[in-house]
Each structure stands twice: as structure tokens, then as C-alpha cells.
Amino acid sequence: MTLTRSRTFAAALAAGALLLSGCAASAAPAEGSSTEPVSGGTLVHALPALDAGWQQQAANNWYKSQVWAQLVETLVYVDADGTVHPWLAESWEQSDDGLVYTFHLRDDVTFSDGTALTAETVARNLDVLGLGDVDQGIARSPMIPLEYVAAEAVDALTVEVTLSSPNGGFLPSLGFFAAGILGDATLDLPLEGQSDIANVVGTGPFVFESEEAERSIDLVRRDDYDWASDAFEHEGAAYLDGITFTVLSEDGARLGALESNQIDSLHYVQPSEEERLEADGWNVVHAPYFGTPINFVLRPETAILSDERVRQALQIGIDRQELVDTVYNAAWKPATSSIQQASPGWVDLSEQLAYDPDGAAHLLEDAGWEEGADGIREKDGERLVLPGYTSPNLNTTPQLLELIAQQLREIGVDLEITQTDASTYGEIFASAETPLIPTANTFLDPATLRQYWGVDATNQFKLTSDVLEPLLADVAQTTASTAERDEALRILQETTVSEAYTVPLVDNYQVYVTGEQVHGLTTNAVGRPYFYDTWKG
Predict the structure, then answer these.
(1) CA separation for the pair 419, 422 (Å, rounded)
(2) Model confidence pLDDT, tens digit, residues 227-264
(3) Domain Solute-binding protein family, which positions (predicted)?
(4) How far is CA 425 from CA 431, 438, 461, in A?
(5) 456 CB contacts (<8 Å, ≥6 apart)?
(6) Residue 377: how many CB atoms within 10 A of its CB?
(7) 490 φ, ψ (degrees, to nearest 5)
């Protein structure tokens, strides 16, 4: 399913002129005047942040991806149901052994600098994504399966890709927004040059016009664009004249700008505001996505979490329904597995994760952690204290951690909350000394879990053994929507929950708010918006 929702927006102001307090009085959205798409107008879309650095692998975050997806396109498009649609590749074949994919490219696509899309350029892109570019200082993309070997241009419009072993997630991985096809003019640049958004040459329906670094970016329509995927609703150029992405870091500032008609749309409001906005007539869209829920990834090889019983106690010592009721609202759901309910192959493990503070206390006692004078458990002179790091990528983590800390204190665990920012969070996450940290991940196919959890990949659990590798390989080497894939994914979910590699918390959504005056915003399987079909009227 392609999730297409109507959005309403108010009249736009230039991003640099937004001087907002976030305290504007609530206003009703403007009523739409058109029922058929019309061309024209600039959409002003507010984001919490826009970091520097636009080399493709570095554009892999929630905020920058919303800009990137308008500039750069992929070989395939994966809609919100997980269906893979042709895009820059109009068709493809897979060999019987699953090791070779042959892609046939459209013959009418050009890059924003006027050069034609060719098999040589696509093969070059795929090699950078799958292998990295050591000479340019560019790492491989974590979204491309590790089985990637090479791509070769067979003729002007045919590309052949070879894998070392079958990977059922390879094809959908090519639809990830950060697996885009860039022009040679971009790929020829070193890392520093590719990191400048002005140097991004793509095939998208919009092109870069200007920026105020880390504050705003202006895109304009590409009038000669005419090769949209069949997943979209129209052909030809985009309806909008342009898009302004503006940074309003405070939640209240974004909301105030929307309600006072200074912006057209926004990404993310506090969940406490969502029901009021809906009641006032604004369109609040919860875009589900394939991936992992908001969760604590645990590091079993850290001393304090080395005992499985301690990790299991954390799982059942948290009341997920209270998290939803207090921090979120009825549109949100407690997490029920190590992947989200929206994901293909999800298995309901809510019984194993059911809130049981008495059971959690018994597990901790069995592990040798005795209650201390202040209620915090101790063992061999050490207090059961864990760090509670906020995530700059998950806006609700401060409130979430406050409530979790209260719940865990009831079973004798002290969660010490520490604020992080984009730079410190990355360092803390990467350290194998960090016993637990909140995160949420997206994927277009569960085979990508190998990129997140595999020892030779991101290795979120910081394992030094290959205990999960056979299970991850079983998922990767089976085909989506088959009994074999479902069984492999069931075993992986049950193992990561029963052996407590993760503490699932809340299923995550990407939330966008608009009014009734803007229509046709589309989100894909990982909740990223595409503004190609969007129109104002």
C-alpha cells in the first residue's frame, strides 16, 4: 500500500523570517478550495534539525532524508505495504541460484546536470554503496547486504549485480532512500565535496536552489521531470513550484508556526498535542514503518548485564501500557516483539513481555542482586545502576526515560538519565562499554536486521561471538512472504526476546501534521515523505 494522505497547510513565509515563540494562539486550518490537483506554490515544511554533511551515507537520518528523497531516486520504490515497484529500473530478473540480479534501466532519465542515466553510472553507484570508496574516504552503506560483490554494466541500459550468497532483502534494499543513484559529477568528488548539498546531482523531481547551513534549504521543481514510479499518482513534473525545509528545533515553535499560518507542514509534535490537533481539524498522520520499535538495545557482554536474568528482569519490569497512556496516546501501541507490528513477519510476543514486577524482582534476587537500604539492589558491593541516555533521534525519550526510571526503581534498578546530542549519542552508542541505549531502526526487508545486529556489521548488541549469525543468515537467505522466511523470522524474534538482547518499549511512528489545504503527501515503507504528488489548493 502506498500511504497517501491529505495534508493542510497555511500560507508560507520565508524560512529566514520565522521568529517564533511557540506560543501562538490555536487557529483552525484553512479550508481547502480545490478537489483536483493544481500546480504552483511553495510548501514550507518544518523539521527539528538539519545536520551538516550530505554525502549519501551521512544523509541517513529522519530529518535529512526528507530533503534527500526529493533530490535523489532509487532503482525501485517500496510502498507502505512492502510492494516493490519499478522506478529507475523498469524491470529486473533474478537468477535461479539467487546470486545474480539483472536490472533494465529506463531510457528516458536524466540527472539534474543534464547527463543521461546509464548502466555505467548505476554500476558505479552500486559499487560505492555496496563496497565503499576507499580513495574518496567513503564507507560502504549499512543498508546494502554484506553479500554484495560487484555490479557490471552489460550494455548501455543493463546492469548485472552479483552476490556471494542469496539475500532475500537485496532487491528491497535498493529502494532505501539512501541507496540513491547519483550523477558522475557527484561521485567524482572527494568526501568533502560530496558532503555539500549544492553538489548533489540526482534524478529527482526537485533540485537544490539554496541553503542557510543547518537552518533552511530551498528546492525548486525540475520542469523536465517525467519518470515517476507507478507507485505515485501522476506523471510529469511535480505540482509544487518548490519546497522550503526550515529548522525549528523546539516542538512548541514548530507547532506555533503551523497554527499561526507561518508554515505549511511539520514533522513531529509531542504526542500530548496530537489529539487536540485532530479535534481542531488539523490532519495528524501517524506513518507506520517497517523496522524495530523504540527499544533498549542491551549489551550482554557488559559486566552488569552479563546475567540473562537481569536483562529479562528489565523486560518485564517495564509497564508498556503505562508508557503509552502517559507519554503517548491511543494512536500509539506498546511494543510486542523485537520488530514492529507493521513489519512483515511480525510475531506477537506480548505474553513474554507482560509487565510483572514481582517476577522481575525474583529474577534479580536469583541473580544475586539484593535490595539495599534505599531500595536499589546491590551485589558484591556494586549498586544496580544503569545509564539512561536520551536519543536525539527519538524526541520522546526524555519523558519516556523519566517514567521508565520510576518503574525500574520499583524493582530495585536505578536508571540514571543523561541528555545526549547528535555527536555524543553516536559515540555512546558505538561504545561496547555502554550497557544499554535507546534506538529504533527502519528496514525495507527484515533481512536488513543482519546489518543492524550482525557481528560484522553495526553490531548493536556489541557481541564478540556469532551466536545470532545463523539466525540472521536464515532470514537473509529466505524469500519474503514465504513460509520459510516467516519461520526464520519467528525464531529470530523469539530468540532476541527470550534471551533478552532487547527491551522493546513502544511501536514507533513518524508523525506529520498539516491542514486541509495541502494534499497528496506520500510516505513509503519506512515512513519517509515524498512531495512529488503534493499540491496546495
Answers:
(1) 10
(2) 999 999 999 999 999 999 999 999 999 999 999 989 99
(3) 83-439
(4) 10, 10, 16
(5) 146
(6) 23
(7) -60, -45
Per-residue cell: 4: 497517501
The helix/strand/coil state of 449 is helix
Q: Alpha carbon of 69 to those of 65, 203, 214, 422, 523: distances in Å?
A: 6, 10, 18, 21, 11
- Furthest CA-CA distance within the chain: 75
Cell numbers at 506, concatenated: 513502544
Q: Is the pTM of this model over 0.85?
A: yes
**DSSP letter string over 84-128?**
EEESSEEEEEE-TTS-EEEEEE-SS-B-TTSPBP-HHHHHHHHHH
Cell numbers found for residue 510:
513518524
CA distance linking residue 324 with residue 246, whole number of Å: 30
* Tens digit of each residue's pLDDT (9 = 90 or more) over 111-165: 999 999 999 999 999 999 999 998 888 989 988 998 999 999 999 999 999 999 9
Buried b (16+ CB within 10 A) or exposed e, 50-71: bbeebbbbbbbbbbbbbbbbbb
